[in-house]
């Protein structure tokens, strides 16, 4: 069986500025993989490439065995990539319920199940999403991605800028999703939380994958070298 996600030596950039110089990553169905690295190393850029928001200049990305190079953004979503982008981005004028409904595709995830995962959303279904707290917007962004019934959930800095107690609610949600067998690719600053939930890690350094392995092999030396400030 093909891996769920297979990234082979991809390169990409922004106009004349090259940002990725050879990122490789492989993840199997059911895994939680952390994409790590200091600021500006190419994590978000890699994620943009996976969702087809940014074209590749080289290399290959396959989702469930299918090369996505020629697919449209919605086609990649239909293949099963559910993105929760950096900075959340809900549809501000829409209510919580509307945000969820517009994303919906058939599958086990519906509004009721999203509300079970994040009960706070249940209390705010009629509220306009622009007026939600940061944590609630993040829960909504995750809920919206789940409504697409993804095979692969991609979380880019899902806990950034949130109060510790709210961050904990998000991590509880991520752990629950993992327990339900969902495959998750995640980027986050909290090494402790990543180590508690991820199966594997891939570390980027200046747009290249520098290390990959089981999370338990990520020693203090490695994290000092690649993640320390
Ligand atoms: N829209 C853009 N235009 C030009 N350069 C960009 C753009 N977005 C990112 N870059 C550059 O691409 C490189 C990789 O950035 P990227 O956002 O992928 O890093 P990151 O690992 O996600 O960092 P962070 O941890 O700060 O989110 C950086 O050098 C950055 O300055
Ligand atoms: Mg980023």
TrEMBL record:
Family affiliation: Belongs to the ABC transporter superfamily.
GO biological process, one term: L-amino acid transport
Signal peptide range: none
InterPro entries per the UniProt record, alphabetical: AAA+_ATPase, ABC_transporter-like_ATP-bd, ABC_transporter-like_CS, BCAA_Transport_ATP-bd_LivF, P-loop_NTPase
Organism of provenance: Paracoccus jeotgali
Molecular-function GO term, any one: branched-chain amino acid transmembrane transporter activity
Protein name: ABC transporter ATP-binding protein
Keywords linked to the UniProt accession: Amino-acid transport, ATP-binding, Nucleotide-binding, Transport
Domain ABC transporter: 5-229
Record-linked SMART domains: AAA
CDD domains per UniProt: ABC_TM1139_LivF_branched
Superkingdom: Bacteria
